[in-house]
Amino acid sequence: MRLLSCFLLLSISILCFGQDKYSSKDKTAIRSYEKASYFLDLNRFTEAKVELNYAVKQDDQFIEAYLLLADVYRVTFDLINAKSTYRKAFAIKPDFAPERYFYLAECEIKTGDYKEAITHLNSYLSKAKPQEAKRLALTNKYLKDCEFSILAIKNPVSFKPENLGPSINTSDQEYLAALTTDENTLIFTRQINNNEDFYISKKKNANWEKANYLSTNINTPNYNEGAQCISPDGQFLFFTGCNRPDGLGRCDIYVSQREGDGWSKPINLGNPINTKGWESQPSISADGRTLYYVSDREDGFGSYDIWKSELTDEGKWGNPINLGSKINTPYDEQSPFIHPDNETLYFSSNGWIGLGNKDIFISRLDKDGNWSDAQNLGYPINTYGEESGLTINATGTKAFFSSNNFNGFGGFDIYSFDLPSALKPKTVNYVKGKVYDAESKQPLDAVVDIVDLKTENSLYVSYANKVDGTFMATLPNDKLYSLNVSKKGYLFYSESFSVEHHKPGEPVVLDVPLHKIAIGNKVILRNIFFDSNKYNIKTESKVELEKLIEFLTENPKVVIEIRGFTDDIGDNQSNLLLSQNRSKSVYNYLLTAGINENRIKYKGFGESNPIADNLTPEGRASNRRTEFVITEIRETIK
């Protein structure tokens, strides 16, 4: 603020340079004006306003006092009074300080007076000097903002915000909502007496329960915690912490892991994500492998840009990558939110054409990995005020944001609204499950790996929660997936599924019992596929076969028998031969991969030993299976 006050005083002194006296001849008014200048040099804005108001009361033609008073109103964000005071100054002498038309127009844009702003921007342009290049560039942007805004107001988008109610919102400030994929957990920031902490609310019977203090492991009495995101599965909370003892810069990004109903001590993500500068506002992708965030580091397009860092195979965050000129501008981009579809990014910016201050924009990732041109969400989602911090649910139907414009419970409250169709991301759904010991029923913190069977890309890799064994993953609707769950000392679990026929918000629910490595225990390999009546292994089976090879490599004492089964369509002898050939195909694949032949056998069982009836397509599909059973656990393998 001191720099601002010095700038204001310098501006006025330049106006007066070469003049023998002020425009006013009233000594009392001049004395008050000079007192105000003194107060401004000390950052005492309230006292400066009192003196300047007194000066113009003594002499209502004192143009310097009006201009300085308008400047003070502007830098203290009293834009309505700033606007009216500039106008009073120009009514006295329109050409006295033509550069102030720029500031008047800025105040008009930020209060929605777009037509007046166009007039005053053009007034500034008619008198501007060539050396004012940055301000001239901003003036041309402001003119485009005004033209866009006038048209946007004439063509509003659908927008009916609903307050989330007293369980979430209070007379204090609530903002920056973060939502889990199943929409049953909401974590947000609440500011009480200038201290920011996280609060959490659970949904019960479609209603939000009263929000509670999140965790003493994360919240602190001496530092602010804010600008958070929660991983779609609800297992990890990424947030911003400023000026902490373990910080690398002014603000750093931290992560905490859920432990049952509690949270672990947060860890600073360190280099290369955090620097000596300012890093904030994280947003994690659905697969947990890409972190989007805001930084003022060097080599960006503006003071604040959106960057991303990707998790390497070694589990470390890679060097940050700037999202480029389709997202970032020479101005400020903030509040990124990557939707669980991993293709749709929402963010706020004052650099793209908008309605004033910061607006919310959308950009989509194409098949080649390029972001589309930023699109303004439109009026009245965006207004002349500052809009930021938008979160979208997994189904893409509702948006969550905070505002103090709707007569809520006090200060900023959290609201939701139905997202217009043109602004929706791709619809995704999710799978949720629980991993536990098959015998004791105790939860297990096993590794959960979900793979796109066509591309062989892993879309979700994480540990089931170590306290309750739960996991949850957000997935696109149009793919076939393999689920593999593994833990040391246990057989892995295999499953094949699709979310295609599940309605948005109605997940696939999986029960995952793990059996200990013991003779007689078996695994059904549900992701090994063959064409009808053939025994050539289909390419989609590779993911499952690699998991089996990994299991045998990590457990070198285990001996298995691969078993093939069919349904009851066709004659028994043909089915027996088909099942024998299919199990042999898997056997040969393992041999080719280097597995010792003394550790594997194969056998076909035909249509015997069904695990379901053969009366339905689903039952017959279950009976057509490949599995393996542990036959020995040897001390040595020869």
Automatic annotation (TrEMBL):
Every OmpA-like domain range: 517-634
Residue ranges the record marks as coiled coil: none
InterPro entries: 6-blade_b-propeller_TolB-like (IPR011042), Bact_OuterMem_StrucFunc (IPR050330), OMP_bac (IPR006664), OmpA-like (IPR006665), OmpA-like_sf (IPR036737), TPR-like_helical_dom_sf (IPR011990), TPR_rpt (IPR019734), WD40 (IPR011659)
Stretches forming TPR repeats: 63-96
Domain of life of the source: Bacteria
Keyword Membrane (UniProt): yes
Compartments where found: Cell outer membrane
GO CC term (a single one): cell outer membrane
Keywords attached to this entry: Cell outer membrane, Membrane, Signal, TPR repeat
Signal peptide start and end residues: 1-18
Protein name: OmpA family protein
SMART domains: TPR
